[in-house]
Amino acid sequence: MADNTMSISVPCEKPIKVEKWKVKQGAFVSQGQILFLYNDSSGNSTGLKKFKAVRAGTIIAIKVKEGDIIEPGKSLADIEECRHPTVMKDMCAECGADLRADERIKQDVASVPMVHSVPELKVSEELALKLGREDADRLLKDRKLVLLVDLDQTLVHTTNDDIPPNLKGVLHFFLRGPGSQGRWCHTRLRPKTKEFLESASKNYELHVCTFGARQYAHAVTELLDPEKKYFSHRILSRDECFDARTKSANLKALFPCGDNMVCIIDDREDVWRHAANLIQVRPYSFFQSTGDINAPPPLNDEKSKMISGKNGSLPTQLPTLEAEPEKQETPKDKGDISVDSKENKSSTKEKNDNKIEVENSTETEPKWVETCDGQIEIEDADDYLIYLEDILKRIHLHFYDMYEKMGNNHIPDLKFIIPEVKSEVLANSSLVFSGLVPTHQKLETSRAYLVAKSLGAEVTQDLTDRTTHLVAVRSGTAKVNASRRMGEAKTKVHVVTPEWLWACAERWERVDERLYPLQRGGQSLARRPPAHCSSPPPAPPAPAMRKRTPSGRFMDTINPLMSFSSDDIADMDREVEDIFNESDESSSDEEAKPPVDDDDDEENLSEDRLLALENTNISQERLQEKENSSDSDTDPDRPKKRPRPSTPPSDDDIPPDDDDSSWNLMGAALEREFLAQE
């Protein structure tokens, strides 16, 4: 405080007389504004002089009165310099100072952008906290919460592909970009969107939060809210996001007092870093060939542009139209498009080019109906917003019930309330899984377990007296048979498919078990939950460290035989000896017979055993070469033992010598080598 306070002293070396003050104590003055009028105390001066403020600030104290004679060096008043609480493009909105020219005040400049669509307008942290408290008080007074709404694949689905111009229910708008011809966008509103916004606006203050560009975000919001009664100016686009990959970085600036009253609906939870106050909705997809056209860039390569096409997100830069924007108007009927109508009619009849399919939970073929006015109407069975509306009502009711119980002194946190509301879905239920969790995975780390626990259910490994549901992938398992026998007793166990659990997680309600029964002889293909109804994945296990061998050589770590125990190696040695002995004993009989392929004898061996035998043969051949070389050095007249051929014997080959002692020595040496490596 003291560093920002400046004292106003007598402006000359002679005493002066203060004739009149032009400002009052507590008033804000700008630079160059007149503070008071004064005159020479001797009375010789004929005119009044003006004293102007050197810096902008607030008059915190006036120490002299009008008519007083002030000696040189005496303080007249104290002024507190402007703190620049509001800044617009490096210029203070209070005093008009250019903050770029003053290096001394750059550290204290306002840095919190609280306005969604104007990131250049920033306020100080002190002012941000004050405005945040005022917003919270206003929401509590109106009994409302804050709802951040995503656009793409949450409320709308947009494509830039060529579509039939007479497709009913699709809205068209043109986006102009700097240095480009412009782009056409075709948007389909999710069914019941208007009703959903009307209902949600009664309990929530709605904000748009999208990764779409600013022009796109405002254009789509104009389609959703043409009267600006739902969203007003509260639109946060990609251009205002602090981070290109996450939306959560802006929460601190938008809500400086905390996000306790903020609820989020989005089809992706990764862009919010798996926030606890997020409701992950089922993605809405109307145009089959298009995903999320405004998806964030990939993590590995920020500058890479994804190829536009089917089954994926399209690039941020939308494809340009071949037709001139002045000639091509927004299509409302067939005659509004400056494209040949015959080509449009032929294109709609092609099956795989321009056909648009509706993705729904039942995966049924969409029904195409051509109306009397020539419009193409497609049946859209998406009804998710009905369930989402009910979820938001329950969250709002639970929040204010807890707020009243706390005596209106503390504000509850939605990051705890939303999981609590979700945990009431399957409360007092006990689940057992059959065929849903892989055998090598622990139950507590599986996705199905995390989903069930987030819904408040108890999950056990085996059937108990408290078991209420058996979620099974296929019938005929031991648990399914046991549960059917338990059904004959007092407690009935509902045997359902995994789709029942996923439906409960999607709708946040206990779905009727009769809709998802496990039929006898039936099998479900939905072992894994959909992305929108799964809990955050568990932390990945730490990477396995490579174990070092006693020798410390990397080559020993990749030897497949190192994974076998000593007993396994001994069994393989005995097996190899038996095979070689049988081959030596029958070698004399095989001379008169046609050659036989050795691969037929090993056809039924396992892949690991074949690999082990192959490495064993190589090692034995090397040992035999060493022994033969040592024998040749000591006794050159001694006949050398020929190694066993790796190819089938021919009629010209000489049968090997029948010497069991040499093979036994080789086997023992091989065993010692592998035991020493362990």
TrEMBL record:
EC identifiers of the protein:
3.1.3.16
- Give the record's GO CC terms: nucleus
Q: Which InterPro entries does UniProt cross-reference here? A: BRCT_dom (IPR001357), BRCT_dom_sf (IPR036420), Fcp1 (IPR039189), FCP1_C (IPR015388), FCP1_dom (IPR004274), FCP1_euk (IPR011947), HAD-like_sf (IPR036412), HAD_sf (IPR023214)
Q: Please write the reaction equations for the catalytic activity of this protein.
A: O-phospho-L-threonyl-[protein] + H2O = L-threonyl-[protein] + phosphate; O-phospho-L-seryl-[protein] + H2O = L-seryl-[protein] + phosphate
Tell me the segments the record calls region Disordered. Answer: 290-366, 522-567, 580-663
| Gene3D superfamilies cross-referenced by the UniProt entry | 2.40.50.100, BRCT domain, HAD superfamily/HAD-like, S15/NS1, RNA-binding
Q: Which CDD domains match?
A: BRCT_CTDP1 (cd17729), HAD_FCP1-like (cd07521)
Query: Could you tell me which SMART domains the record lists for this protein?
Result: BRCT, CPDc
Molecular function per GO:
RNA polymerase II CTD heptapeptide repeat phosphatase activity
Residue ranges spanning the membrane: these are none
Where is there biased composition of kind Polar residues? Answer: 310-319
Q: Which UniProt keywords apply?
A: Hydrolase, Nucleus, Protein phosphatase
- Residues forming the FCP1 homology domain are 140-306
Pfam families (alphabetical): BRCT (PF00533), FCP1_C (PF09309), NIF (PF03031)
Q: PROSITE patterns under this entry?
A: BRCT, FCP1
Question: What's the stated role of this polypeptide?
Answer: This promotes the activity of RNA polymerase II.
Name of the molecule in the record: RNA polymerase II subunit A C-terminal domain phosphatase
List the top taxonomic levels of the source: Eukaryota, Metazoa, Ecdysozoa, Arthropoda, Hexapoda
